[in-house]
Amino acid sequence: MQFFPAKLIDEGNQKILAPYWIANVVNRFNCVDQEQSELEYFRDGTIEFIDKLKLRVLKAKECGDIFRMAEFLPLLVVSDRLKAGLEGAGISGFTFYKPEDFSL
């Protein structure tokens, strides 16, 4: 993980809001079960659409609580533990999907 400080300024009073950080998830793992998933590809072989997503089981100690799908970098995979922690802390800005409920 990489973390970068960010300043958020209130447009009304120009005050800097509480410290914020931008997180860049750099870990990536090949986790898509290509045979069980229904995927559409660009000509170069990268994933264009995901009609059905099935992930391979990975050991948590190998990949941690958050990582990118190496096959489709815009998507992040998070553990149930991290999801529960974010929701419990009231942190917003995330939408969570179970792999079987996700399509793009």
UniProtKB/TrEMBL annotation:
Question: Where would I find the Immunity MXAN-0049 protein domain in this sequence?
Answer: 1-98
What protein am I looking at? Answer: Immunity MXAN-0049 protein domain-containing protein
Please indicate which superkingdom the organism of origin belongs to: Bacteria
